[in-house]
């Protein structure tokens, strides 16, 4: 195992110095899963995923993109980076769970995984928020990195 990247020589928190890194195209895909009780999923499907608060999926998409853009403000040691692209895709899988995929891309000296993870996370939390009046038995089951490219190491989850 390598050392934690966000600790300096005195073992105190610090940003990673990316000054000498090359600018490369970086892309990350993150996934979140939201498990909704059957009554909520049925009601959402019946009403084309719209509630009195608005379209659940459309609102979650916008919230996820907005959050991804603010990642450097939310995660203390993340570098603030401008994204070249951010897309959120939401679908209901065969287990009647809501799957959220956030894809983020940038030309930069540092990765974009945290932006993708933040986007997927906030989209999932937005779905929770918009549906919680019907039940608090909503579970954000997992948030994980699916793949990343660019930089020193690529990653792809099996």
Automatic annotation (TrEMBL):
GO MF annotations in UniProt: cyclic pyranopterin monophosphate synthase activity; GTP 3',8'-cyclase activity
Where does the record place the Molybdopterin cofactor biosynthesis C (MoaC) domain?
15-151
User: Which EC class, in a word?
Assistant: lyase
Q: Name the CDD domains on file.
A: MoaC_PE (cd01420)
Keywords for the protein's UniProt record, in alphabetical order: Lyase, Molybdenum cofactor biosynthesis
Q: Which residues form the signal peptide?
A: none
Pfam families, per the entry = MoaC
**Which InterPro entries does its entry note?**
MoaC, MoaC_bact/euk, MoaC_sf, MoCo_biosynth_MoaA/MoaC, Mopterin_CF_biosynth-C_dom
- Any one GO BP annotation for this protein: Mo-molybdopterin cofactor biosynthetic process
Q: Its catalytic activity?
A: (8S)-3',8-cyclo-7,8-dihydroguanosine 5'-triphosphate = cyclic pyranopterin phosphate + diphosphate
Tell me the function of this protein.
Catalyzes the conversion of (8S)-3',8-cyclo-7,8-dihydroguanosine 5'-triphosphate to cyclic pyranopterin monophosphate (cPMP).
- This protein is called cyclic pyranopterin monophosphate synthase
């Amino acid at each position: 195992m390598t050392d934690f990247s966000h600790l300096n020589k005195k073992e105190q928190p610090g940003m990673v110095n990316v000054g000498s890194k090359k600018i490369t195209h970086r892309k990350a895909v993150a996934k979140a899963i939201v498990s909704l009780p059957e009554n909520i999923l049925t009601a959402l499907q019946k009403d084309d995923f719209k509630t009195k608060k608005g379209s659940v999926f459309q609102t979650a998409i916008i919230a996820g993109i907005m959050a991804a853009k603010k990642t450097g403000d939310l995660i203390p040691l993340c570098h603030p980076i401008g994204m070249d692209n951010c897309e959120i895709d939401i679908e209901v899988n065969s287990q009647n769970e809501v799957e959220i995929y956030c894809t983020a891309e940038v030309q930069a000296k540092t990765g974009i995984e945290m932006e993708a993870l933040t986007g997927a996370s906030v989209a999932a939390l937005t779905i929770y928020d918009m549906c919680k009046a019907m039940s608090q038995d909503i579970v954000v089951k997992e948030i994980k990195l699916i793949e990343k490219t660019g930089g020193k190491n690529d990653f792809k989850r099996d």
